[in-house]
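Quick start: what a row looks like.
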Amino acid sequence: MSHLTKLEIRGIRSYSHKRPVIMEFPKPVTLILGPNGCGKTTIIEALKFACTGDTPSSNKGFFVHSPKIADEYEVKGHVKLQFVDVRNNAGVVTRTLHTVQKEKTMSTKTLDGTIKRNGKDANNKNTLESLSLRCADLDKEMIRCMGVSASVLNNVVFCHQEDSLWPLAEGSTVKKKFDEIFGQKRQTKCVEELKKKLKEIKEQNKLEKNELEHRRNNRDKAAELEEELDRVEVKLAAGKLDVEQIDKQVEELKEQLDESLAKVEDARQLERKRDECLTRLDSLKETKERMEKEIKTPYPHPTEKLRNMLSSFERDLQDKRKREHELTMKQADVTESHDKAERNMQQFSMDIGRLEEAQKLYARLQDEHAKMLGKLAQNFQKSSALLLGKNMTVEKESNAIQLVEAHMDESKKREERRIAESKAELNNISKNIDSVKTTLYKAQEELRIKTETRKKLKEEMDKLLVEINGIKTSGQSLSRIESDIAAVEEDIADFEKSSRLDEIRAKLQSTSEEMQSVAAKQDKISGELELLHSENRDRQDRERAQEELAVKQADIEKLLSSHKSTITRHLGSMPAAGKHTATLSRYLNTKKVKGKELSAKLTREQRSLTQKEHELKTAKQQLCELEIKARKIRDQIVDVCSTPAIYETEVRTAESEYQRLKKENSNLVGITTVWQKVKDQISETHSCPMCKTHLDESGTVKAVESLSRKIAKAPERAIQSKESEAAAEKRYVALKAAGPLYAQLNELERDKIPELSELVTSLAEQIAEQRQNVEEIEEATQVEATDEFEARSMEKDLDYVDRLQAECSNLKDNIAKLGSRLTCTYTKTLKEAISEQAGYQEEYKRLQEDNSRLAASKSKKESMQLGLQKKLLGLREEHSTLNAQLQGLKGMEERRKEKALEIGKLSQAERIVGDTIKPAQEQLKELGEQSTELQDADLAKQRQIRDALNALSLDIQNARKLEQQLSSNRGTDGSSLTALSEKLERCKAEYENLKAKKRKLESDLQQVQTDLNGSQLQKRDLEDSLQIRQFEKDMDGITEEIGALEKQLADKAITNARRKASKLQNELEQKRQAKAGQEGRNRGISDQISRLKREMNSDMFKDARTKYHDQRIRWHVGERTAKDLDMYAVAFQRAIMRFHKDKMEEINRTLRSLWVQVYRGGDIDFIEISTDDAEFENASKRKTCNYRVVMNKNGTYVDMRQHSSAGQRVLAALLIRLALAETFCDNCGIITLDEPTTNLDKENIQSLAWALSNFIKTQNGSGHFQLIVITHDQDFVDLLGRAAQISHFFKVTKDDQQYSWITKCKTTL
């Protein structure tokens, strides 16, 4: 049973945060006396906080000693409780609250707590467990240690004075408290979980039932699929026989068709040659007609004369091209000189304009330079007083910039001297500041060290004082521990005499030996049973194997006789037993390899033939396309120039014409500008600007009018020139665009068309040779396929024969093996052995029960003996600890006095050091202000001087830039302009001369090109006439060849051969279609079989019967589980109701007894707690239970809350808590009473004291009951002390600092 031993409080409410207050809890009663507000109730609150983690207020900051009152930033509230848990193990729990006072708010947090507890390891040795847990885990662990629920601790064990009247509060409050005490919420949750689980199981059973129905349907469907598969396999076998018959008919038709096709193929070759000749003839006719239309001048001369004329034209053309080339080169040279002269004219005009602009710029720069010098002198005069300390001026002269720069250098040196003086003064002030800071730091450091030393000594002294008080308090319980040790030693001796542990151990050993003997007999009979079962199974297996062997041998004979002739024909002889499949496989592999070789060869030949036919067709198409493409390209080139032969010459001519017109147009734009300038100069100066000739008034007017006419016509000439340039550009672009066509035409006529003609002829010869090879390979492939088909028709049967022979061999071996095992003989039958085994099992079960009962008794007594020994050991250790503490008490007192003297000395030294710090701080502040003022003035002065110097530097920089510009433009004068004008006139004369030469060369070149184009057209007509003569000759030869082929075709009876071949092909096609139809049906049936097999092997139908059986078992198990769980839920609810009813009856019995003992009035016989806890037949109807306190007088029950005085209510609430503690605190003997005499008269107080003394005597029989009473009534303490024979009580008071303090006092007996 759990109880409390010692409590340590520090920093909780009115208890000091600097020194702990320790209080012991003697048994059976702890009396705490003190006036109101002294901190008595805080003890109950601290106990409740240590055990449950709950504080009186939701804001834990109010539970901790206020940092404002303590005049500190943070305070830690500390509660340490020493206790003994329900397993009689000593433990210590520590909880800490940390409160921080901020500027406007206060924050509190709970630190992790610890539990230190004695325990035992695996070897049953004493150990010390230390657990550091979060608050929630710590609360749960403490509830387990106390042995009662949190609601009982809060509402019964540690009940605050303000909450002590809860049994007579509102009905909802009373119901909530009792529901928490009875664990109603947990019970209700458990019932709801059971119902929820039951509902889930029922829903799952519905799903399982649906799944069962689904499995049943799958089982039925699987049976239907098996029947369908058997029917379809029979249908497939019949279809395969039909295909074999059709194959035989097809082979006969193929032989007849091959003979007819050979004749038809010969005729087809002749027709193909004839068609080729006709195609060539038509192509030649079309080409001849087109060329005749294109010839502009026909030549009826003989062929030889035409060739001579063509040679003469070619020589003439070469001479004309040579002349054209010479003229073109001369034109290029003249054009280049003309363009160069034109560029020079333009450059001279631009240079003249640039010189005029430079003269204007030089004048403007001179004005700006003079202004800038004036501005520089003015700015210097303004800033001279600041920079040099006196007013100075500078004249606007050439050396003004050098004078200002010299004065600026002097100003910079003067400013550097001033800055150096200011820095020296600042350094002196800084040295003084550092000196004062050093003195101040040393004083502060000395003060800090002394303060820390004093605080440390104060803490050590407080700790010594706490330890001394604790030792004094603990010394008083030394005699009690010695008496407890003697009592425990006596209990151990009595237990060893009465326990009879040796007798129990002997009986346990005897029972274990008997169990081993029975187990050995049981193993023996189990072995005999297994051998008897095995022999029975072997006999049945041998009989079944003999029957199966006879059936399989008959099947082997039947199959081999049906295929004997076929095997002999293909394999040569009958293979050995078990070798049929291997021999046939080797034969088939040979045929397969040969068939694959022929098939591969045939495929290669057919693929090669098809490829070459495709290549031939492609080559013919490409040849025709290239010829058409060449004609189209030639027509496109003719649209641009007269003939492709002169295309290159036409391009060069068009390019030179376009360049000439472009340059002429550019010159026209430049000369218009020059004319306008000349006109303006003549009007102004009455002289020619070119030759400098003076003009009279009439000459000036004529010159101006002439220039005006030219300027007026200039736009029209420009437009005409641009139109000519655009036309020349269009022709040049068109000719250049035809360049790729010209290159493409040359490539087609010289390379591609001749190459394709040769390729067509070569491919035709190769195709004829390969067709003959394909026919030979097809015949050999057909022979091999027939042999392979016959061999494969018996493959399945021979494979089945091999499997049957292997199975027969295995059956013979199995029969011999089973016969050799049937040699064991036993005197017992199978039934006798089973009966004997059941007897041994019952005897073993009885011995096992006896053994478990003896082991439990032994374990219980050993546990009790171990508990007593452990208790004795703990008391002896506590006795030794107290003795050691009492011996060191005197030394601790002396150390405390020494530390108090040291603290006094350190306090005096702190005051002396503190008096020297303040003057140093004031001096440091004054020096800092002086340093700041000096630095600010110095920075302002530096900023002004820097701004003035920057302004002067900017002016000097601008003036120097203007001087540089003036020097760069100083060389501009009128002589350069006159020289450029003379050069321009000479360039114009040269330009006009070159222009005349260029026009003459262009005229000559155009005449030569015209003659050249006419000659090229005549040459083309001559070449086309010669080509037409050659076409006519070729056409005559082709016509003769066609006549010979027609004669050969007339000699062959090709019509009948084709008719017969067509008929055979139709019949063969019909047979093939019939075969394909039957094979398609067979494939459909095979697919249907595969589909049926896949469907049968799918997850839905595979093992459908087994899955249905397993699902049926799952459904039955679920139904039984739901039924059992429903019964368990009802039984659980009834058990809860029975538990509630029994507990309430027990509470009311105790309450009536206590009321009769305590209450001295005659108006109430007894009181009890009334509930509506009726037990229904259907337990699920009970949902809640309401509670109220009633009083009885002469058999009449009245609600006590409405019909009783305040004193009666206080007494009733107190007794109800005692009754609840008696009922629910089986594992926890603690109960606290806070101000139990409130509102009680003297008579009832005396009765309460005597009743409590009787209650204590009754409960203290176990030695673990512990009552803690807190009161302010001295008389009640004396009464209870005399009645319960209590020698001491604890008095709570407050010291001068208003901190609570606890002292131990003697009672008045």
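That is the whole record. The chain has 24 helices and 15 strands. The CA atoms of residues 659 and 725 lie 8 Å apart.
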